[in-house]
Amino acid sequence: MNRIYKKTVTFAAAFTLFVGLLPTAAAAQAKTAGIDAAGMDTAIRPGDDFFMYANGTWYKNTEIPADRSSLGAFNVIDDVVKKRTASLIEHAEKAKDPESQAIAGYYKAFMNVEEIEKLGLSPLRSGLAEIAAIKDAKGLSRVLGSQLRADVDPLNMTDFYTPHLFGLFVSPNFTDPKKNVPYLLQGGLGMQERDVYLKDDERSKMLREKYLEHIAAVLKLANIDDADAKAKRIFDLELKIAKVHADPEESSDVHKANNPWKRVDFAAKAPGIDWTAFFTAAKLDDQPLFIVWQPGATVGESALVGSEPLETWKEYLTFRAIDSASPLLPKAFADESFDFYGKTVAGLQQQSSRELRAIAATGDALGDAVGKLYVGEYFPARAKSDIQTLVKNIVAAFGKRIDGLTWMSPKTKAKAKEKLGTLYVGVGYPDKFRSYDGVVIKDNDALGNNRRLSLFNYEWNLKSLHQPVDKRQWWITPQTVNALNVPLQNALNFPAAILNPPFFDMNADQVENYGAIGAIIGHEISHSFDNMGSEFDAYGKMTKWWTPEDFEHFTESGNRLAAQFDAYEPLPGVHVNGKLTLGENIADVAGLSAAYDAYRVAYNGKEAPSKDGFSGDQRFFLAFGQAWRGKMRPQLLRAIIATNGHAPGEFRADTVRNLDAWYTAFGVKPGEKLYLAPESRVRVW
User: pTM above the 0.90 mark?
Assistant: First the structure.
């Protein structure tokens, strides 16, 4: 189980696609997708700082709540969705169908603090006994294999993370997308950021010291002898694991990730682990082929299994078992987990209520079951129809932009149009929801429920290895406030939850919907053609479908965009990594451009009417800028800059500087800070 507080950090980092916000959830519910003039700071010239022009007064007057590490438009929608989801979960017990009963049981068990206190560490007894019984390398390999789970986050392509030594990701094969294959990924670090283990800056040194104290504290709470010495050995082992890990930039390079290994070759390529025992315990002994995403880490971690003392590995596994379970253990363990992962790492000042944590945990554990209830109650047919029309217009606009490219050859254009034509765009919810038949949920066994569902989900993923690839499979639930592009399926997912104000409102003016949710939809469509998406053809196969000359031009444009973002300095001495964030930045430019074209088509080629003192084009760009409204605590901001493929929202709002229409709309002149000469504006698509 991913610890809840750590998952909060991972969630925030992975979902920095949306980090804007309005002052309160109540205000957000009353507000449409229209422009918030009161939150602007018109004393700032839009050409100097468009983010602060659109959001400055809100930014100055808004404090991040004590139980959060960030605040933004994402949170506004998320707050609304959580309240809705909470009501659905709390009333699920009244329904008699098995899935509603499972939802009710999971929530009730999480809330049953008395039972959790009474059980203590007993739910971990069998797992800890298995670790204690390890006698040799084969036994260690067997335990490591039995712990393999499909718990990596496919939404964050630059920072796959799993708390186990390795993680599994089941997806279409890079070179044969008609077949699902298992991807093996690096893992095993208690602190998610690899560089925190390796760098000598003050924050990294502080976190290493606090993490060592945390390890010792957990062991002492579990009444484990010689806790301080064991904590040091555990930390030193994790440090060695970190040293063999690939960094985020390398992990985001799909060419470096495409490493097919036959199962029978693992022993020779990565000695140390008894791979036969590992794969048998992982129920993967029937798989002939794996894609090893980070081969250096696989070789390095396997070597450590063979070289590090067996007792140290047993100490490490014991700590990992307890620490990962801490949010569902007695209060002392849960509080220690929050103190380190919530307060120290994420900068949270206050823990959210037990009820909110129970709602989040239930919605995460039984995602499709909760999602089915959500869309039945909160996603009307008209909303789906309106979004489908908007999607259709943006896809058409993107096609016209491809036709109009003067630098792209007819051969590459034909391939791009073919890819656009085969794109699957899922809106609201999947065609088919997952079933949870067979999983046992008890209303007095919180940790057991979590473990059984983790195994159930793992085995569900394994089943897909023996089934045809489903292009329409969703990777996120309807109640998730995000959107997703899946290159290997040439597919998009736009869940019902994100289709809410301030991003989308059925009753708002179209221009503002196009500036907010339209740019997001355009963003996800353009991921099919960004620096990663351009590596996959119309059917999800990783192949070069560009002519060398076209790809060179595309790469040169990408380099110029990377240089733009390299210049941004969110914290003193800390710059955005333009290369790491390039895919998202390309998608922002292309998505905003396509959304702008589609908005003009929706108004029959004319500018939208003026309103509240703003022209139609100004309203479009302000809706975009306010969609990126947000603040982060420095701890989270540093973590995102170091590991995440998304730039901070304030700089993504400044993407407007690459569109000619923005200059005309706001009269931006040379000498203003965001001004780019026409030849310096990046026009990727």
Answer: no
